[in-house]
Amino acid sequence: MEEACGVRFARLHQVHGDDVVAVDAPGPEPTSDDIPTGDALVTGSRGVGLMVRVADCVPVLLADPRAGLVGAVHAGRPGLTLDVTTRTVEQLRARGAADLVAWVGPRVCGRCYEVPAAMRAEVTALVPAAYATTSWGTPALDIGAGVRSQLEKAGVEVVDVGGCTREEPALHSYRRDGARAGRLAGLVWIS
């Protein structure tokens, strides 16, 4: 866990899957490598924050303040097709969430996320809202639009923060900067 503002942040070894990890107590120290594997976190514990890191993937932060529950999701192309976001919503609802709000953060946009035509067809067969074309006319995916559609289908209020990581120099982008790219962190906690 990382620590800031008196809150300890749980983090994950993110693997582009659909595992949702429940965190109910502070975990290992920041220097520890003993962190869970998964792509989403949920908690109802005060003083435990949740953190996902992205550099083109979609960070999704979820909260039901009345129920005292929060979640954080790392949704890339594989996570979109596995529907990790809906799995996280289901976990929060199983814990008592009723009025969830999701903040969908900066990510590579559909105008910039070029993929092979076969990949676009495969993904959009599962999530039609992800269909896109780059600004230069080639097949693309809009992972943010796909995640928004999954959240809306699950009955979650969506606030789209927006921003394209590839187009905006102030944001980290693996597609733009390669292996030297930094990471954005999506953070949420119960105060």
Give the secondary structure arrangement, pairings included.
Blueprint: E1 2-4, E2 7-10, E3 20-22, E4 40-43, E5 48-54, E6 58-64, E7 69-75, H1 77-82, H2 84-94, E8 101-104, H3 117-126, E9 131-133, E10 139-141, H4 143-153, E11 157-160, H5 174-177, E12 184-188
Parallel strand pairs: 2-5, 3-4, 8-11
Antiparallel strand pairs: 1-2, 4-7, 5-12, 6-7, 6-8, 9-10
Pfam families: Cu-oxidase_4
GO molecular function, one term: hydrolase activity
Keywords: Copper, Hydrolase, Metal-binding, Transferase, Zinc
Count of strand segments = 12
Q: Which structural class fits the helix and strand makeup? A: alpha/beta
Rg over C-alpha atoms, rounded to the nearest angstrom: 16 Å
Report the major sheet: 6 strands, mixed
**Gross morphology:** globular
Number of helical elements: 5
N-to-C terminal Cα separation, in Å?
Answer: 17 Å
The average pLDDT value, as a whole number, equals 92
Q: Could you say how many structural domains there are in total?
A: 1
CATH architecture: 4-Layer Sandwich
Q: Could you tell me the CATH topology label.
A: CNF1/YfiH-like putative cysteine hydrolases
> What percent of residues are in strands?
25-35%
Identify low-pLDDT runs. none
Spell out the CATH superfamily.
CNF1/YfiH-like putative cysteine hydrolases
Tell me the name of the CATH class. Answer: Alpha Beta
Helical residue percent?
10-25%
Write out the strand line-up for the largest beta sheet, numbering strands in chain order: 3-4-7-6-8-11
